[in-house]
Design a protein that fits this description.
It contains no helices and eight strands. Helices cover about 0% and strands about 35% of the residues. By secondary structure, the chain is mainly beta. The strands form two sheets. A five-stranded antiparallel β-sheet has the order 1-2-8-3-6, with no helix packed on it. Strands 5-4-7 form a three-stranded antiparallel β-sheet, with no helix packed on it. The mean pLDDT is about 85.
Length: about 140
């Protein structure tokens, strides 16, 4: 079932193209109409976005969606489980313990609420589709 066939507009938030959203546990079929809400979904909610990171950048935009670490640019964590599928370019996912994971087109990684940051060390724009599943934790971060 195709629920939509329309051009989407980028949010003012840097590099985020909204594709589909529900703020509660989805029932199907579901149109997933994207509201003007910018932010991670509450537990049970789902947000599907396109995400773009330009070459030579780290993902440190203060886009009002995540709280960045002031002392370590780009590092952040979210109360979500995020499934990233890289479509174009290359990305490096840096974890809190210094481990770096290089992603190339077709690679998938799940970020499970841990502290991390993104790098585009490549020569081209990196484009990914990200499915964000709202989660809960004992020390939930509030914006």
């Amino acid at each position: 079932m195709l629920v939509g066939d329309e051009k989407i507009e980028r949010f003012d938030a840097a590099g985020i193209d909204p594709i589909w959203r529900t703020d509660y546990v989805p029932a199907v079929p579901n149109s997933g109409v994207v509201s003007d809400t910018v932010g991670f979904p509450d537990p049970g909610g789902v947000w599907v976005i396109g995400w773009v990171l330009e070459p030579g950048r780290i993902g440190d935009s203060d886009n009002g969606i995540v709280v960045m670490d002031d002392e370590d640019p780009g590092f952040h964590r979210t109360d979500s489980v995020d499934v990233h599928v890289l479509l174009e370019g290359s990305l490096v996912l840096e974890l809190d313990d210094g481990v770096e994971i290089e992603l190339n087109p077709g690679d998938t990684v799940v970020v499970n609420g841990n502290r991390h940051r993104w790098h585009n060390r490549g020569e081209g724009t990196a484009r990914a589709v990200v499915t964000i599943c709202g989660a809960s934790r004992n020390d939930r971060q509030e914006n």
